[in-house]
Amino acid sequence: MIFGRSERGKPPVEPVTLKILVAGGFGVGKTTLVGAVSEIRPLRTEEVLTEAGRPVDDTSGVEGKHTTTVAMDFGRITLREDLALYLFGTPGQDRFWFLWDELATGALGAVVLADTRRLEDCFAAVDYFERRSIPFVVGVNCFEGAAHYPVEDVRRALDLDDGVPVVLCDARERESVKDVLVEVVRHALAYSADRHAGVTT
Predict the structure, then answer these.
(1) Is residue 117 exposed (0-12), middle (13-18) or buried (19+ Cβ within 10 Å)?
(2) Which candidate among 122, 178, 184, 192 keeps its CA 20 to 30 Å from the CA of 161?
(3) pLDDT at residue number 52
């Protein structure tokens, strides 16, 4: 870019920005996912877990986790010259769910990140987006040492509609996360088009 114009003499493209939520249970990898793919230094609101929070922060299965998100994570990724995603990672514990409505305002869609060792932890996120008609994709974070299950088994366990995509991913790997985000955008646009068609017909 030279003085606000491209080298070919074309004006710079102003990208469309879309808001995507990253939700799921405590310790499922939401902060890791946002950090893996963000092209800017992610904004994080993590605090150290304390003894005071032990009765409400269930760390079974994620005993190595020592911090928790108390407001949100924020990152940005440019998928194309004309398309950028703003990523908002939600806090996972029940006591911070009052923040979800604010974060969900204006969202195109969401990723519900799931851990097959604690699959029940993402039920609340699935229910939240279903009730509010926000299109979402389930991303199964494939942790080392965890049993791997076929996508259809995960779909049945979560009682998902056939139209909800389920994608296996590694929240640490940028390309894997990009694939999940591309699927969210595709699904959300198709969902919007279907709803619009239903209104106009």
Answers:
(1) middle
(2) 178
(3) 45
> What is the pTM (predicted TM-score) of this model?
0.79
Return all residues near 114 (Cβ < 8 A) that are at least 6 apart: 24, 25, 28, 121, 122, 138, 139, 140, 141, 154, 158
Confidence at residue 7, expressed as pLDDT on a 0 to 100 scale: 54
Per-residue burial over 157-192, b if 16 or more Cβ lie within 10 Å, else e, is ebebeeebbbbbbbbbeeebbbebbebbbebbeebe
- CA–CA dist 178, 79 (Å, integer): 8
Q: Which residues of the chain have pLDDT under 50?
A: 1-5, 49-57, 59, 62, 65, 69-70, 201
pLDDT for the residue numbered 65? 43
For residue 13, the one-letter residue type is V
Residues 6+ apart with CB under 8 A from 172: 29, 32, 36
Task: State how far the Cα of 42 lies from the Cα of 36, in Å rounded to an integer.
Answer: 9
Tell me what pLDDT residue 49 has: 44
Written as six digits, the tokens of 198 are 């239903």
- In sequence order, the β-bridge partners of residue 21 are 88, 110
Torsion angle, CA of 49/55/61/67, rounded to 10 degrees?
A: -10
**CA 162 from centroid of its chain's CA atoms:** 20
